[in-house]
Amino acid sequence: MPSRELLAGGYRNQVWKVRSGRGFVIEKQYAEDPGSPNPMYPNLPDHEAAAMAHLTGTGCAPELVSYRPPEHHHGAQVVYRYVAGTQWKRGVDDVARLLSTVHRLPPPRGLRRLQRSATEALAHADAVVADTPSARSRVRMARARPEGMVHRPVRRPSLVHTDCGPGNIVRARDGLVLIDWQCPGVGDPVEDIACFLSPAMMILYATPPHTAAARQAFLDAYADDEVVRRYHRDGPAWHYRIASYCVWRAHRLARHQPEVAARYRAALDAELELLAEW
Q1: Residue 106 clears pLDDT 80, i.e. is over it
Q2: Which of 9, 146, 181, 265 could bridge across to 48 with cysteines, CB 3.0–4.6 Å?
Q3: Residue 35 has pLDDT above 60, yes or no
């Protein structure tokens, strides 16, 4: 095996697997976001390093080795221990236990503030849709938009991964590990639940969407009944927000990456179908 291997899957950043002593580390070389910053998944290397440092010893995240802030001629670099294992494929109850463990921990200081209520999630989604020039898409989203959702922000915000799709969950020898902490924050754990249960996110990771039975099994296994009740109440707002991101991405990829844009459109259709069934 080469001592330095460029891994596939990095969209904006370069991710290398590097031999270090008797094991391997991951070196993530951060790139600046070209053009407008991503409205949901920004590049935040300092937050990634802070989240992994905070989770040291929990087994929920890789072990941070080092962090180099961005310099004049170099982007930021985050180095962490390589997690040997396979991408998550099955076992929603295991993911529920992993996420509820993360969400119960006191969040670290200094991370960005995320949306903390259905009201804030909808407002953010509206801004993302408004940034899409396609009038047809805006009309479609207006018809699907959940109404009557006015709730106060969550009282005890949690550490939220924000991008906990199957591609960022590794089944290691000792259990599941969340990787790719490039855009964490402090907010409502319902955001992570909606992300994992989202049919759009599963499609984007080339994985079949969850069945209704699997979604219920996840919620049954999640350790906090209050959060589950809030998901049942506020879920449409968070899933609508994911749909808004699919609209935003599909539009921006349509010209130069039409095949990827088509995948986002398929993901959008699946997310709106879930909303219609809510």
Answers
A1: yes
A2: 181
A3: no
> CB-based contacts of 89: which residues, under 8 Å, 6+ apart?
166, 171, 207
Supply the CATH classification number for the domain 87-277. Answer: 3.90.1200.10
Q: Each residue of 241-250: pLDDT tens digit?
A: 999 999 999 9
Domain boundaries, the chain: 4-86, 87-277
What CATH number does the domain located at 4-86 have? Answer: 3.30.200
Whether the per-residue pLDDT at 72 is higher than 70: the answer is no
Q: Report the candidate in 200, 222, 236 with the shortest Cα–Cα distance to residue 117.
A: 236
| pLDDT higher than 70, residue 172 | yes
Average pLDDT over residues 140-144: 96
